[in-house]
Amino acid sequence: MANVVVVGAQWGDEGKGKIVDWLSVSADVVVRFQGGHNAGHTLVIDGKVFKLALLPSGIVRSGKLSVIGNGVVLDPHHFVGEVEKLRGQGVEVTPANLKIAENVPLILALHRELDAHRESSNVAGVKIGTTKRGIGPAYEDKVGRRAIRLMDLAEPNELDAKIDRLLAHHDPLRRGLGLEPTSREAIRDELLAVAPKVLPFMAATYDLLDRERRAGKRILFEGAQGALLDVDHGTYPYVTSSNTVAGSAAAGSGLGPGAIGYVLGIAKAYTTRVGGGPFPTELNDATGQLLGDRGNEYGVNTGRRRRCGWFDAVLVRQCVKTSGIDGIALTKLDILDGFDEIKVCTHYRLDGADIDYLPAAQGAQMRVEPVYETIEGWQGTTGGARSWADLPAQAIKYVRRIEELIGAPVALLSTSPEREDTILVHDPFRD
Question: Does the model's pTM come out above 0.85?
């Protein structure tokens, strides 16, 4: 049995929620290892829709242990609200089935305010299309060694000194931006008001996970966003503020790299992204509109319409390398039903030369032109298919061509949002 890491192999929104839920049936523990409540997962179980932003997808399955790892930044007020919402839907959420790393950094009101201010700016290069939920500023404070962490709420007598250290940075920053100052008392009150509702979930999760691993429990690591939004390997600066690649599962959970067995990348049968930044295969035409309408391409948390385009094999191939992806879960194949022809980007043209990778330089990323291969479409339906025999022959050819171009096999094929509409080619837990 192999522990499995699930990562997005595009810019996020690839359908990770359904795949993680599908895999969680075989898992004992589900760990969220990075990001914040800026990435939504939609789960459809027996016709009931669950929308998660912060909690691991395994929380909706009974008998599973869910863990929020130290690599996450946690908004305690959002956490409480999401827990209450799930409980209202009949989901059991208690300290027995959900644990939060004691050293997880917290998102505060001042982080949200700073994020929103930057996104409202007209200064070139400041606005990058964040969700304004404070994730980036919270990560800045983490690496700046001034974050308030969950464990700090358990020591209220020590809070003032830690808040002063935080404000030593934020006070001059807020003055320079023309924002009202924040008092130590306001932050203290904000934290102590929510502490009793969050602290019961606190645990030394690195130790807990190590014990679960040694006991032979199957662990599923769940990331947020996609590998193309990785702060190191993505389309910088139009990225998130954490490492979204598979290697982050180890650091973000407190386990060593040896705990990771199989890496499953999630990719749509076409491409989408939210927010600003380069998007070589974006379609600003009726076809792009059609993909968005058919795929219901709106952000789970923000409601923002996603930008849509053809499948970009260059980018997914690059994510296969940076995350060490062993197999792909290809989602939303059914959205391509009925197209007479489908295009796939096989390489780029940059300043007159052909290249087979996305350059790291921001200017070059904006200049690359996609070079397409045209593939015959299919008139039959793939929606709801649960075996290869249910697929039109041309749809199978499309999937096989994708495998060739990205250098990784398709391990799972998703043909609708419903959990059961999944074709299993290789079980990631049986590496």
Answer: yes
